[in-house]
Every structure is written in C-alpha cells, then in structure tokens.
C-alpha cells in the first residue's frame, strides 16, 4: 500500500493541481454543514470537512470505518476468503492484466471486494477483472483531446467538468464536489467519448491515490464521498441525446473500474423532475 498510495508531491502535476484547485464559491460551502448533518457525520468524534487533512490531531484516536454490505472495512487488507478468490483468478489472467494488477494491489482488492455478492466468485469476477484491465489499457492509450480556447488537459477538471476536493468526512474519506450547473456541455459533448472517459479515469485515479495514502494516526481509507450539486443545472443539457450517451458510458466505467471506491453519493438541489 505504501507503494500504491503515492505521495501527493509525486503525482502527475496536472492532477496534483486539480486536487489543489480553489474550493467552490461560498454558496456551496454554506451547504456543507447541512449536508454533513443530514449524513449524520456530526454524531462522530472526528474531523469536520476541512482543507487541513494532513495534520493528525494530538491525542485523538480515529476509528476505522465500518464494513458495509457484508464486506470488510476498507482499512483491512485481504481477508482469507478474498485472498482465495484472488489466487484463483490470478493464474488465469493474461500477461498484460497480470502485470497491471501486480503493480496495483488496491485495484485488485477493490474488484474482488466490490463484486463479492456474485455467485461462483472467482469464475464470475474473472471476466470483470479482464474487462477492467482492457478498459484501463484502452483509455491510457487514448490521446488527450484538444480542448480549445487555450485550455490544457488539467483545465478539463476546472473549466469543462468542474471537480473539487473540499476536505474529508469524519472517517477521513475525501469529499469530492461536482457542480452540474458549471459543466460546459457544449465543449464536453464535442469531445470523443473515449477522450472524456480517459480524462475522468485520470481524475478518479488521482483521487484514489490521494485518499489511500497513509496519514499518521488514522486508519487507511480509499473510498470517497461524491457530492453532486444540481443547482443551476439545465434539464435541457442533461436530457440531450449526447449527454445520455456519455452518461451511460461513464456509468459503465465507474460501475466496473471503481467498484468499492465510493462511500456515499449525495445529490443536493436536485430539480423536482429528478426526485
């Protein structure tokens, strides 16, 4: 895990910049206390949403997050059952997939753990693992598209699909904010779908590394809380055929590649038609 949880300073500069981007404007920040209360975070003896997530509180003991859906806590490594599934899958993988997972033990753990409800776990999980490895290779080889207007790839996460890290919840999970009202749908939908997914994969990988890196005095966590703010979002943009096509591809990507990587999805300011 020390190898996988790279130091923030060692991240590729575009995504280190993304994670250090300014917080959203005050109207959204004003919603955080209410959102935290609605989620029940105020009941825990842990840190509130804070930018200062690298300083360990003196004398405070942080409990590891509980397991959910019958799975072990994310602070725990491979269980005996999970290791058995891993060892049954590994010899049956192709060389490229095997090399990828040998260098990314956390990815392998999340895939085995994320599909724990499947029957015949090894046989059922194997094609999913192979699909994820193929997708990662495919998107890694997809060139970053020209964004226009003098924008560079890291600007995608600020100007086209705005994404912020706004701190951590009481368990230490990164809280990631995405404002649909600020998505530049015209430029987004002009990009090839694979290019969009490649840029989102880069961003989600950066978030995962940041989340899972060791923090003194705190249990390991690797999941994130995603807070989606629908304020000022245009239903016309969301309902466009091209938007639906990108959304379907992105949903498939996250369902497979980022299994067991989300602690909570929270949607605020959703219009009545979506409730």
Short description:
Helices cover 43% and strands 9% of the residues.
Structural overview:
- This protein is α/β, with parallel strands linked by helices and 275 residues long.
- 43% of the residues lie in helices and 9% in strands.
- It contains twelve helices and four strands; from the N terminus they run H-H-H-H-H-H-H-H-E-E-H-H-E-H-H-E.
- It has helices spanning 13-19, 26-29, 32-39, 80-89, 95-102, 105-114, 121-140, 156-160, 185-189, 193-212, 235-238, 241-257; strands spanning 163-168, 174-179, 224-229, 262-268.
- The chain has a four-stranded mixed β-sheet, with helices on one face.
- A hairpin with a 5-residue loop joins strand 1 and strand 2.
- Helix 1 packs across helix 10 (193-212), helix 5 packs across helix 7 (121-140) and helix 10 (193-212) runs parallel beside helix 12 (241-257).
- It is globular.
* Mean residue pLDDT: 76
Low-confidence stretches: 1-60
The major sheet is characterized as: 4 strands, mixed
SSE series: HHHHHHHHEEHHEHHE
| Shape field | globular
How big a fraction of the residues is strand? 5-15%
């Amino acid at each position: 895990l020390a190898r996988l949880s790279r130091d923030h300073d060692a991240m590729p500069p575009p995504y280190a910049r993304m994670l250090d981007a300014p917080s959203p404007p005050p109207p959204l920040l004003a919603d955080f206390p209410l959102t935290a209360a609605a989620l029940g975070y105020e009941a825990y003896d842990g840190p509130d949403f804070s930018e200062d997530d690298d300083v360990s509180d003196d004398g405070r003991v942080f409990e590891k997050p509980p397991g959910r859906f019958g799975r072990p806590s994310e602070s725990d490594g491979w269980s005996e059952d999970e290791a058995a599934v891993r060892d049954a899958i590994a010899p049956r993988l192709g060389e490229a997939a095997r090399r990828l997972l040998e260098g990314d033990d956390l990815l392998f753990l999340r895939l085995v753990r994320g599909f724990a409800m499947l029957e015949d776990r090894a046989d059922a999980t194997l094609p999913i693992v192979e699909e994820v490895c193929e997708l990662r290779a495919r998107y890694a080889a997809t060139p970053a598209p020209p964004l226009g207007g003098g924008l560079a790839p890291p600007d995608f996460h600020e100007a086209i699909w705005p994404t912020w890290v706004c701190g951590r919840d009481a368990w230490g999970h990164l809280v990631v904010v995405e404002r649909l009202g600020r998505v530049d749908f015209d430029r987004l939908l002009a990009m090839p779908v694979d290019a969009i997914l490649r840029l989102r994969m880069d961003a989600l990988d950066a978030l995962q590394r940041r989340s899972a890196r060791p923090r003194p005095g705190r249990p390991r966590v690797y999941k994130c809380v995603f807070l989606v703010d629908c304020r000022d979002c245009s239903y016309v943009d969301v309902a466009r055929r091209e938007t639906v096509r990108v959304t379907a591809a992105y949903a498939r990507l996250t369902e497979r590649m980022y299994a067991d990587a989300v602690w909570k999805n929270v949607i605020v300011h959703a219009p009545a038609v979506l409730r």
